[in-house]
Inverse folding.
């Protein structure tokens, strides 16, 4: 009985000792990452050794990679505060037996069917084929290159060439395009303006982009959030340019067109809708509205 | 009365071992085994008719090593910890001016020794060259990259020092003396030029770095007096293992950015300044190594030259050299194993001929798998490289030689009354 007790105590002791020995190395980082070590907060540095009591703070859009005990690696990509003592599990290294790997390899070689180009197309028709250009998996319509916005419901949309299920939307301040000040993950190929209204202020310009989750997209688009006053002044100017005898539906359609031409997409949508309502028999108004909705993913 | 279990086991073990030993000491077994080796030697050395149609096979097998399976399929080196003594600084596309800035910045963080894995063989832009020259002269712990050109045939070898080398600078040859597109398995720590400079050999880049970093390891390396060393690859930094990089790699631009790199990452270490690119489609300064995922057939180079140098440094510092067993040892093992197989096959050939072919094929397969495994285990566990290819060839040839030897022995028996176990012809 004493022997068993001793063994249990010994096992417990070794577990505790091994759990306490974890040391970390800050391998790399991007964005805004800071470290609290010995109660002193400082900016993260590549190659910085950290003890298990250290805390890593990751800002939105940033990421940090750590190596534990020189043998295991893990990465924080979500914003938050991470006390390293909670990540002892990440220091475990799985070990594969050479013998079992050898048996698996020999067995796989003996049993694996290589198939033929006809029966296993994926294996045989897998060459790159040609050089690729614009390898970015996200395509953003050039008409969204600059969006002037003063209000209303309108989505920022994109198309994906991969079968991704999740996308990252990133918003940058005009004076800092290196680090996004807001990022969020969405499952649709668009994000409504209402979702980011709380993050932006009228009178300011921003950049935005979207990327497949885990990928990067350097293509930034402009979002100008204009004040109501600015927009109203612009609209008044457009209104003045109408013909003397312009019907309300005609005016609404013209304003929609001119606003779209000037990148006021949300506002253009309002006027196209208005024109279609005011003259519901006009095929041009209806088809233009339908095309507009389709082009900008308005459902 | 029933036999006790241990007697049962002993009885079956004895019966099983008799399969191998019954004909072991028969002279037919010994002579047939000898014929296997005579056949191998004949194929190797006799001026046989044009066999150029075998060239593609020879070329394909030239660069093949069974031990490479240990890396690509069995996970050797997969969990080797990061080497804290070495830091690689990615120079990217920096020109001489950029390199000079990087050297000075690295030096400001106090590495014990720095190595610049860039060959520079002549003057270029005077302004940039002057910056480089200044950086080289300022940092006495910098090792420059030179080249050693081995002579072809009777041509004498030559040494081409780096353009920035002076009597006060340090350098070493960076090139590996293997074929351009062959797997880099060996490393020459020191090279001599025939006839001249016999007292002082030229040092390789790694040897020069080790000399500065750890004189004790350098002395051990010198005492080995090996012209070539097999490289014991233990770490890699490629795309598929980017989840766990086994060397600290710092991007040059990060190093130059104020306060982005901690001094601890470089201080007191070996700082290797070289080109690293994880993009598999970029093969600039990339070598084939035994760590390549494809251990046979066509593939793309897998490791940047600077990471190969880092692996050699790790090996020397850890005194982790690979011991290659001499040819005679491989031959003795091949003879012993071939002899055992011959005895086993002759037993079936004579006493259970119906099953001979099936047993022979199965045992050849099992033997090949088993001895390959033993060879790989020796390599992984004890760093002993044993050439098992001769053994495998012997196992394969044994069965065919039995047919030849039987005809030969029966002919001898008829002509000279030669005493043989092959009393009657089976085929």
């Amino acid at each position: 009985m004493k022997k068993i007790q001793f063994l249990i105590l010994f096992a417990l002791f070794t577990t505790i000792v091994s759990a306490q020995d974890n040391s970390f190395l800050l391998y790399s980082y991007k964005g805004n990452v800071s470290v609290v070590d010995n109660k002193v907060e400082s900016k993260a540095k590549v190659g910085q050794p950290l003890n298990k009591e250290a805390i890593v703070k990751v800002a939105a859009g940033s990421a940090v990679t750590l190596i534990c005990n020189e043998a295991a690696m893990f990465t924080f990509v979500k914003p938050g505060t991470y006390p390293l003592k909670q990540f002892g599990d990440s220091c475990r290294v799985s070990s594969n037996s050479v013998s079992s790997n050898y048996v698996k390899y020999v067995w796989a070689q003996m049993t694996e069917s290589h198939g033929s180009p006809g029966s296993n197309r994926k294996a045989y028709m897998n060459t790159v084929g040609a050089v690729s250009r614009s390898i970015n998996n996200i395509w953003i319509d050039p008409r969204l290159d600059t969006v002037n916005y003063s209000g209303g419901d309108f989505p920022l949309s994109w198309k994906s060439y991969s079968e991704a299920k999740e996308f990252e939307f990133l918003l940058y301040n005009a004076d800092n395009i290196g680090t996004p000040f807001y990022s969020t993950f969405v499952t649709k190929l668009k994000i409504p303006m209402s979702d980011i209204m709380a993050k932006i202020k009228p009178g300011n310009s921003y950049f935005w982009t979207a990327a497949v989750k885990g990928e990067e997209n350097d293509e930034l688009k402009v979002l100008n959030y204009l004040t109501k006053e600015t927009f109203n002044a612009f609209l008044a100017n457009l209104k003045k340019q109408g013909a003397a005898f312009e019907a309300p539906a005609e005016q609404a359609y013209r304003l929609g067109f001119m606003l779209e031409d000037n990148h006021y997409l949300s506002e253009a949508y309002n006027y196209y809708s208005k024109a279609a309502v005011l003259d519901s028999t006009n095929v041009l108004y209806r088809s233009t509205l339908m095309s507009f909705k389709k082009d900008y993913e308005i459902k | 009365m029933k036999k006790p279990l241990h007697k049962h086991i002993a009885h079956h073990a004895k019966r099983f071992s008799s399969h191998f030993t019954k004909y072991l000491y028969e002279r037919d077994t010994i002579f047939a085994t000898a014929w296997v080796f005579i056949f191998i030697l004949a194929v190797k050395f006799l001026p046989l008719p044009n066999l150029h149609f075998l060239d593609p096979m020879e070329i394909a097998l030239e660069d093949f090593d069974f031990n490479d399976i240990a890396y690509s399929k069995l996970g050797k080196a997969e969990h080797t910890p990061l080497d804290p003594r070495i830091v690689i600084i990615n120079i990217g596309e920096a020109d001489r001016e950029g390199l000079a800035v990087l050297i000075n910045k690295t030096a400001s963080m106090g590495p014990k020794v720095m190595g610049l894995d860039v060959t520079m063989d002549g003057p270029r832009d005077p302004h940039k060259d002057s910056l480089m020259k200044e950086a080289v002269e300022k940092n006495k712990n910098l090792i420059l990259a030179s080249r050693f050109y081995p002579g072809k045939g009777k041509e004498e070898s030559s040494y081409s020092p780096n353009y920035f080398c002076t009597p006060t600078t340090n350098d070493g040859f960076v090139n590996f003396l293997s074929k351009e597109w062959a797997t880099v398995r060996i490393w020459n720590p020191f090279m001599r030029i025939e006839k001249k400079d016999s007292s002082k050999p030229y040092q390789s880049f790694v040897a020069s770095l080790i000399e500065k970093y750890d004189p004790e390891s350098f002395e051990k390396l010198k005492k080995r007096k090996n012209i070539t060393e097999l490289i014991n690859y233990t770490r890699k930094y490629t795309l598929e293992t980017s989840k766990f990089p086994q060397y600290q790699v710092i991007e040059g631009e990060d190093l130059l950015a104020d306060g982005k790199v901690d001094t601890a990452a470089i201080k007191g270490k070996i700082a290797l300044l070289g080109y690293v690119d994880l993009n598999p489609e970029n093969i600039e300064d990339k070598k084939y190594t035994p760590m390549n995922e494809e251990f046979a057939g066509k593939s793309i180079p897998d490791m940047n030259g600077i990471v190969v140098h880092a692996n050699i440094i790790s090996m020397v510092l850890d005194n982790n050299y690979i011991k290659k067993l001499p040819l005679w040892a491989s031959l003795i093992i091949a003879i012993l194993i071939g002899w055992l197989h011959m005895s086993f096959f002759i037993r079936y050939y004579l006493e259970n001929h119906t099953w001979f072919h099936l047993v022979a094929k199965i045992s050849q397969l099992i033997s090949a798998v088993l001895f390959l495994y033993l060879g790989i285990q020796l390599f992984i566990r004890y760093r002993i490289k044993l050439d098992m290819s001769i053994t495998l060839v012997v196992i394969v040839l044994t069965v065919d030689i039995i047919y030849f030897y039987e005809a030969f022995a029966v002919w001898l028996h008829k002509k000279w009354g030669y005493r043989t176990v092959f009393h009657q012809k089976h085929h």
Notes: The first strand of chain A starts at residue 23 and ends at 30. DSSP finds eight helices and 17 strands in chain A. Residues 4 and 10 of chain A are 10 Å apart (CA to CA).
